[in-house]
Amino acid sequence: MTTAPPEKDTWYHGKRLPPIGLMYIAGALEKAGYTVEMLDNYLANKSLEEVKQTIRQTKPFMVGITCGSATFARCLETAQAIKEAKADCVVVVGGWHASYLPETLLAHPQIDYAIIGEGERAITQLANTLTEGNTDKATTIPGVACRTSSGVMVNAPQFIEDMDEIPYPARHLLPLEQYDRTIEFLDAKPADVMSISRGCVYSCGFCETRKLWGNINRSFSPKRVIGEIQDLQNRYGTKGIYFINDNFTLNKEKTKTLCNLMIEQKLDLEWVCDTRVDLVDDELLELMSKAGCRVIWFGVESGSPKILKRINRNTTPQQVQTAFKLCKKHHIKTACSFMLGLPDETLEDMEESLKFAKKIDPDYCQFNIFIAYPDSKIYKELLQNKNYTQLDEYLLSVKSDQYDYEALKALQWRFFKSFHMRPKQILKRAKREGILTFTKTRLLHGTKKANGTA
Predict the structure, then answer these.
(1) What local confidence, expressed as pLDDT, does residue 211 receive?
(2) 82 near 70, Cβ under 8 Å?
(3) The whole model's pTM is what?
């Protein structure tokens, strides 16, 4: 299950998508023969008393909770409610926070196990071991952290090499009709999300996704991806897809094979993907456009070469301009995000980002306040030099002589208006949506999105 959002949730104000990480976990457990139910409490927003009632009615042997650092406190409250409703229920926590800081979760007795990294294999092995009554063996399962007589035992994960062994996400366990199955960038409706690869080969200082997914890129085979697309179309009427992985085009040959299969199968599909500006070229973009790609999201992050180097992005403004021109050539819309308040970033550097955003003129643009997440390189730097604002128990923002978190929020809103209220952007939006609405709900904090697993 996912936990309900914090009462004053400042971290995400966008569209609520089905929790694809949990759907993968549920699918793996179903494949292993278990009866599984899912509760997306970000959607249902049940009170703790209602959660208790659900536990009393369903009497589960095990409950899995996904936890991000921003929902840490809610995770603990939910776990406590589960134990109060059924004391012998095994509570397992996965997700970003569990992968980065499992010890902080296991310091609380209401949590029995934490899952490190991808969870399909680890949680299935844990469930099998516990149902067999062999609790001692649970301490040796890769990717599982637990308490022992000598302290917390954290077993390194073993990443799944053959991704095709993972079943389709268990979408049938969620009320998909209650979600807004649209993607802002697509006209096609209904639209859903897919995740087709894991692992990042890059070392950006603001990100530690490699600890969750590993530093070797692994992906579903193109044939497997086509199979899931067709399953979505046949069962749920899907017309659009957002491939939410960070580097969709990392393996160009696989991307080409997938696009050619999309064309051969004559899929009635429009789609969006995320990638880096240095991972596209003219030939690839031409093929992607023919296969139905309508928008590409790029993490530009900064218009300042100095800041790009500081965060180890290994891209340049010139590469950004080249990628955007090629997308325009092939009638692919562009979306991008910039981060404000990066380490050593000055107000002048941020103004350079705004100027650069207007120069490349994407169809969609976000300015996000940089939030340092636990265990990333920059997070450790901030703890050491103490130049930060403590946002909650674990999340930090950069503080300098020029700005603090409140100043960054004001700057973010000014940048948003400065970019989006230009006549060119107003006309684009009017053409796209037929209305002119601009609200603060489009402002995000931290990274543009977060994926989790259990």
Answers:
(1) 78
(2) no
(3) 0.90
User: Is 118 within 8 Å of 160 (Cβ atoms)?
Assistant: yes
Task: Output the six-digit token pair for 235.
Answer: 């069962």
Exposure string of 6-28, with b = 16+ CB inside 10 Å and e = fewer, is eeeeebbeeeebbbbbbbbbbbb
CA-to-CA dists, residue 294 to 237, 281, 338, 416, angstroms: 19, 16, 21, 24
- Say which DSSP state 173 is in: G
pLDDT of amino acid 295: 97
- Output the DSSP codes for 74-103: HHHHHHHHHHHH-TT-EEEEESHHHHH-HH
CA angle 21, 25, 28 (to 5 degrees): 140
CA distance 296 to 279: 12
CA distance 392 to 388: 12
Measured in Å, how far apart are the chain's first and last C-alpha atoms? 9
**Quick one: residue 375, left, alpha or beta (phi over 0 = left, psi -120 to 50 = alpha)?**
left
Indicate the pairing of strand 197-198 with strand 191-194: unpaired
The predicted pLDDT at position 439 comes to 43
3 state SS of 371: coil
Q: Tokens for 442?
A: 């489009």
Which residues does 31 contact at the CB level (< 8 Å), separation at least 6? 124, 167
154: phi then psi, degrees, rounded to nearest 5? -120, 115
382, 400 Cβ separation under 8 angstroms: no
Q: Which two tokens stand for residue 340?
A: 């404000």
By the 10 Å C-beta count (0-12 exposed, 13-18 middle, 19+ buried), 87 is classed as exposed
Q: Are 344 and 307 in contact (CB under 8 A)?
A: yes
Closest to 6 in 3D by CA, of 393, 440, 367, 375? 393
Helices (H) and strands (E) in the chain, counts: 17, 15
Is the separation of the CB atoms in 115 and 123 below 8 Å?
yes
Residue 8: the pLDDT is 53
Q: Residue 3 and residue 9: Cα distance in Å, rounded?
A: 12
Compute the Cα dihedral for 200, 202, 208, 214 and give only its sign.
positive
Instruction: Check residue 3 and give its pLDDT.
Output: 75
Q: What is the mean pLDDT of each run of 10 residues along the chain (454 residues)?
A: 65 71 97 97 94 97 94 95 98 95 96 96 97 91 95 94 96 95 91 95 86 90 98 97 94 97 96 97 98 97 97 96 98 97 97 98 95 88 93 92 96 96 82 52 43 32
Whether the bond between 190 and the residue before it is cis, its omega within 30 degrees of 0, is yes
